[in-house]
Amino acid sequence: MKKDVIMVFDGSFDGFLCVIYAIYYDNINPILIQKEEEIQLALDSELYYVATDSNQAARVLRGIESKISEKAASNVYYAFLSGKDDKYMTIFKYIQFGFSIGSTIDSHLQQDCVRAVHDLARQVGKEAHLLNGFSRFAETDTGVYYCEITPKNDVLALIAEHFCSRFMNQAWVIHDKKRNQAAIYDGNTQVIVAVPKNATVNYAEGERETQKLWAAFFKVLAIEARKNPKLQRQMVPLYFRKNMTEFKEML
């Protein structure tokens, strides 16, 4: 008989895949899936803590790729990066349905879990794509280039991959201030690390003045008669602008 429990994991993608592993191999019926730091205990519910095991995670990922599809595995990963709080059960239901239906899963748009996962994955992919163009780097006093982002979704790994190929020989740091983590690239290797909330950055001499000149140039370049704030907000959403050099003097 299956146990009805609230499953708790460490918040990592590997940890979530281990939740899926435990559901199938330990015969569990999850009533909720939560990160350890966000536990909300329901009445008469049992907590089931899932340890992260990279071998189990890899086994589940291979299972999704082979028994469902590689596209489904991509959808699962992108949906997992969403900033939505209720995503875990939705993704589990998508995987569960996929194991039962196979590679045709993404054509079953009448299923709530399929549509929901598609929406989450699309939102994450869109934000990552926009940040590839909207991210702004500034030179620090060590010669490393620094960029601040505050995305709605956890897209740091996605955009870091983009900039590894774009700035192959340049050391840089992309700092997700919303999640207190940073991608660090030294010109060869890229890692993601936790960053203290009070971390500070020392810019290179003249960098602040350069940013102010660029913002002023952007402002002067605008043609008053052709201003269209509504269209501009569609092209460059407001929540990106606080981290974009050309808008900082205009907010």
Brief write-up:
The chain has 251 residues and is an alpha/beta fold.
Overview of the molecule:
It is a single chain. The chain is of the alpha/beta class and 251 residues long. It folds into three domains: 3-126, no CATH class; 135-205, no CATH class; 208-251, no CATH class. Helices cover 45% and strands 16% of the residues. Helix 4 packs across helix 5. The longest helix is centred in the middle third of the chain and has 23 residues, at 112-134. The chain is elongated and about 65 Å long. The relative contact order is 0.08.
Regions with little confidence, pLDDT below 50 for 5+ residues: none
The total beta strand count reads 8
SS-based class: alpha/beta
Strands side by side in the biggest sheet: 4-5-6-7-8
Order of helices and strands: EHEEHHHHEEHEEEHHH
Helix proportion range: 40-55%
How many angstroms separate the termini? 59 Å
Shape: elongated
In the residues, how many domains can be counted?
3
